[in-house]
Write a structure and sequence with these properties.
Layout (H helix, E strand, L loop, with lengths): L10 H14 L12 E6 L2 E7 L8 H12 L8 E6 L11 H8 L3 E6 L9 H8 L3 E4 L3 H7 L1 H9 L3 E8 L18 H9 L6 E5 H7 L18 E6 L9 H4 L6 E5 L3 H10 L4 E6 L1 H9 L5 E6 L21 E10 L2 E9 L9
Parallel strand pairs: 3-4, 4-5, 6-10, 6-11, 7-8, 7-10, 8-9
Antiparallel strand pairs: 1-2, 1-3, 11-13, 12-13
């Protein structure tokens, strides 16, 4: 989503917006690490910028430092680093970023979100202050925290961030009457929904969806060359009846298909979390979506609504009734031709006070 700029932004906020722009370039590519962006500023100008591209590769701070060293190394000492997430201070797949910052001669660090990883949280301030580096935190904190929402859930609970997606008619159906075409939503809405796959590490569907639609569940719509790994294609089945000719079992990505036989959705999510899956997309069908909402497993919703009445067929949220209605927060509504996208975040009873 585009980042809104305010003409009353402070200089720190303006530079942090640029760091957020950098971080957005890594969304969906970094699991199990969070997407992070960084910008280095000297004499009122950007001298370096970068983002974390892939787990095991350089972090955003190091990318920005290298960029600054290439463009104008004389300006690097004494400069200011803006980074969306608190710099790491431990040695993992890469050396700690705090050491790289000190070695570069940077004299001020501004970060947006505190690292939810207990190994790092709050520690960089003391490290930098001992080195004589000024630290400012919490700049555009809400925006920076929103960017790492999936990582925060995964690192603190071991469970992936769950996105629920559906394309439905005005009367809440995801299938059309017999003899009609397969699609309910428009080409534009379906293309937008497919692009969500770029954000996730796994796509979950029910076996009925595979039997009926024979979906590909692959990355398309301009994803070629992005460096994005094909997400796991996860099929939930009670019977184990998956047609052997299904595309997900025979195409070039067949090794990225997981059949979860007889497992409940919470157990499937725990299993995926252990595999380093940070974000999942539930694409259908209605029974899987119904279970996800009943068990309060959904963190984010993309609902595409078409101007069509079906009068019957599978409801978008199927199975037994929900124990209570689910309200969405931070809602955005986006027209897509004659279709509409509703995007928001479910508010569960234990997350806020009840509303009348």
């Amino acid at each position: 989503m585009p980042l809104l700029r305010d003409k009353n932004d402070t200089p720190d906020q303006r530079w942090m917006h640029l760091a957020l722009d950098q971080a957005q370039r890594g969304v969906g590519l970094t699991s199990p690490n969070p997407p992070v962006g960084a910008v280095i500023v000297a004499q009122g100008k950007v001298t370096g910028q970068g983002f974390h591209r892939k787990a095991g590769e350089a972090h955003a701070e190091v990318e920005a430092i290298r960029d600054a060293q290439r463009s104008n190394p004389k300006l690097l000492p004494g400069s200011t680093l803006y980074v969306t997430l608190e710099p790491c201070c431990t040695h993992g797949r890469t050396p700690p970023c705090t050491e790289a910052v000190k070695a570069a001669g940077i004299k001020r660090v501004v970060f947006g979100a505190r690292d939810p990883n207990p190994k790092h949280a709050g520690r960089c301030r003391d490290i930098f202050m001992l080195a004589g580096i000024e630290v400012t935190e919490g700049v555009l904190e809400a925006e920076c925290n929103a960017l790492i929402r999936p990582f925060t859930k995964w690192i603190t609970t071991g469970m992936p961030h769950v996105i629920a997606k559906a394309g439905q008619s005005l009367d809440g159906r995801i299938t059309r009457p017999a003899g009609e075409g397969q699609w309910i939503t428009s080409d534009a809405a379906r293309a937008h929904g497919r692009r969500l796959r770029m954000r996730v590490d796994a796509i979950i569907v029910g076996a009925e969806t595979v039997r009926k639609d024979n979906p590909q569940l692959t990355l398309r719509d301009g994803s070629t060359g992005s460096g994005k790994l094909q997400p796991w294609r996860v099929v939930l089945t009670r019977s184990g009846d998956i047609p052997p000719h299904s595309r997900i079992l025979t195409d070039e990505f067949k090794d990225r298909t997981l059949i979860m036989h007889g497992k409940d959705l919470p157990d499937v999510l725990k299993d995926l979390g252990k595999r380093g899956v940070m974000t999942v997309l539930i694409e259908g069908g209605g029974i899987i979506l119904g279970q996800a909402f009943r068990e309060k497993l959904v963190d984010e919703v993309f609902w595409y609504i078409a101007p069509r009445l079906c009068g019957g067929g599978r409801p978008s949220v199927a199975g037994s009734a929900l124990p209570q209605s689910v309200e969405l927060d931070n809602v955005t509504i986006r027209p897509m031709g004659d279709n509409v996208l509703v995007h928001g975040f479910p508010v569960w009873p234990d997350q806020s006070t009840s509303k009348s």
